[in-house]
């Protein structure tokens, strides 16, 4: 079992979408990415490893990148967003931390 303190150094991706991007489409794309990785590796494995948070108002998605299947979800999601929305629709920042229950926007 891991505690919150033990998880604090995990890698995360913060994906910021521009003002014209449909956040409903972003959420649908994320769910499809999760489904896709789950079809390959098993739904339970993905549920255990791949954390995410979405804040549609702030146009931000945070994805866990600290485990192999979480990284796979992030890769599939970014690839699908590039294909469906275009490379200029978002930017990806890699950082350390945890995936919050709700996305807090840095000031």
**Sheet with most strands: strand arrangement:** 2-3-1-4
Contiguous low-pLDDT stretches (5 residues minimum) are 1-7, 103-107
β content, as a range? 15-25%
Number of helices, where a helix is a run of at least 4 consecutive DSSP H or I residues:
4
Assembly state here?
Answer: single chain
Shape-level CATH architecture: 2-Layer Sandwich
Mean of all residue-level pLDDT scores:
85
The largest sheet is: 4 strands, antiparallel
Characterization of this structure:
- This protein has 107 residues and is of the alpha+beta class.
- It has a single domain, classed as Alpha-Beta Plaits.
- 45% of the residues lie in helices and 21% in strands.
- The protein is built from four helices and four strands; from the N terminus they run H-E-H-H-E-E-H-E.
- The protein has helices spanning 4-7, 23-41, 43-49, 68-85; strands at 11-17, 52-55, 60-64, 90-96.
- It has a four-stranded antiparallel sheet, with helices on one face.
- A hairpin with a 4-residue loop joins strand 2 (52-55) and strand 3.
- It starts with a helix and ends in an 11-residue tail after the last strand.
- The relative contact order is 0.28.
- Residues 1-7 and 103-107 have low confidence and may be disordered.
Describe, in short, the structure shown.
The chain is an alpha+beta fold and 107 residues long. It has helices at 4-7, 23-41, 43-49, 68-85; strands at 11-17, 52-55, 60-64, 90-96.
């Amino acid at each position: 079992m891991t505690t919150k303190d033990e998880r604090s150094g995990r890698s995360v991706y913060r994906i910021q979408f521009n003002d014209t991007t449909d956040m409903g489409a972003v959420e649908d794309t994320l769910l499809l990415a999760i489904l896709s990785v789950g079809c390959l590796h098993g739904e339970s494995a993905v549920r255990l490893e791949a954390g995410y948070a979405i804040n549609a108002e702030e146009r931000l998605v945070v994805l866990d990148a600290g485990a192999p299947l979480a990284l796979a979800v992030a890769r599939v999601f970014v690839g699908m967003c590039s294909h469906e929305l275009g490379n200029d629709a978002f930017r990806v920042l890699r950082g350390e931390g945890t995936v919050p229950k709700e996305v807090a926007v840095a000031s």
